[in-house]
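Readers of this paper often ask what the protein records in our data store actually look like. This encoding replaces a full spatial description with a residue-level series of whole-number codes. For reference, a complete record is included directly beneath this paragraph.
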Amino acid sequence: MKTVSRLVRRYIAAAFGIVLLIFTVNVALFIGVLGYYGFYWRTSGSYQLNRFADSFTMDASGVIAPGGEHTLQEWMEGREWSMLLDDNGEIIWQYNLPDSLNHRYTAREIASFARWYLDDYPVFSYRNGLGLLVTGLPRGSVIRWNFYTDAALLDIILSGFVPLLLLDAALILGACLLLGWRAARGLRNVAGGIDALSQGETVTLPETGMAGELAEKLNRTSARLARQGALIEQRDSARTSWIAGVSHDIRTPLSLILGYAEQLERDPLLPDGRRQKAASIRVQSQKISALIEDLNLTSKLQYNAQPLRLASVAVGPLLRSCVTDFFNSGQADACALDFELSPAAERFSFTADAALLGRAFENLLINSARHNPGGCTISVRADVFVHSGVSTLTVRFSDDGVGYPPAVLLALCRPGTPEAHGAPHILGLHVVDQIVRAHGGRADFFNQDGAAVRIEFDSGEQKRV
């Protein structure tokens, strides 16, 4: 909802700002044009009629002519014609005057053209010591009008200009607020629906108003997600129940097989060949039992159904215990061990589920022994590195055996890709990756003179409970 409110505020501010900018630019252009032409009127030689009129002189012989700092051609620049009338309306000087205008003028005619036009020529007049100077501009070059108004009305207009501007600004702001409110009302339900969908809830929005089409699409999306969620939940529940049921059903016969195989293996009355077969049955049954446990564990970890019993775990004792149990189990008879624990790793402790983490380490040791039946050297090294104030525990398991097949590495590093489908059995390694991630760590699988796994835990990472 905060996003919608912020969007509406920005929309209103932008709309008001644009209107204000357009209004300001228009006023500035209007004032600029008026100022330019006013300056041009005052300074251009075409309109300096007073200076032109004051430049006229009469010599001793009675000849009248303009003078001053300009020539006659310069004075006449921009003018069509000029004439100088005496007090009786007689023309005592003229320049380029049309024949139709070359006559005596009465007081009525002078009063008329002084305010408007003379034969469609816009004219301007100015008195000097000799008479009245009248000059005509080209037809159509200037528009003249006579403007007058009541002083009280003009005072009202000038005094009300600023309040009128404020009223216009208020109306514009009100219109923007109205539009923004209508937009917000239509988007508020849509935003709420999106928030609900992001939290996995089902939404049913009213499909009316400006955002009706969006609401309709959100409703369809919500219904589709609900159906898909129900199907996925039903499928996952069925799979989890099936795995739990099969594990439970197979546990009793598997225990009997293990017990009988161990009895036959230890029976001195049986020939050595049969006791070896019994031992093989026991070993394979133990593998089946481990696979069933891994299957249950990966299913629980995938759906967060495996609670983490978190406590402070010391890395050194945990690793030594896992290595000791592995070699005492008899599964590493053909393997040698290279174990190295730095002093920093010996002192390192962090919050974890010791049993679950030990299961991951045990799976890695068993994997090296199982896939190298001819024997190999298993290396376990742990150290702590500090970067930017964060201590990182690094535990590396490796062997000098056959290494990981490319399909296994692809399935571990890029599990979602089509190329990873059909990979060999990696359930034990997949459980390792899930356990490490559940503790906020990272597991990298690679080949380097054999199979290798690098596990990292940061001391400051949050753990999932």
User: Anything to note?
Assistant: The longest strand covers residues 376-387. DSSP finds 13 helices and 14 strands in the chain. The first helix runs from residue 2 to 43.
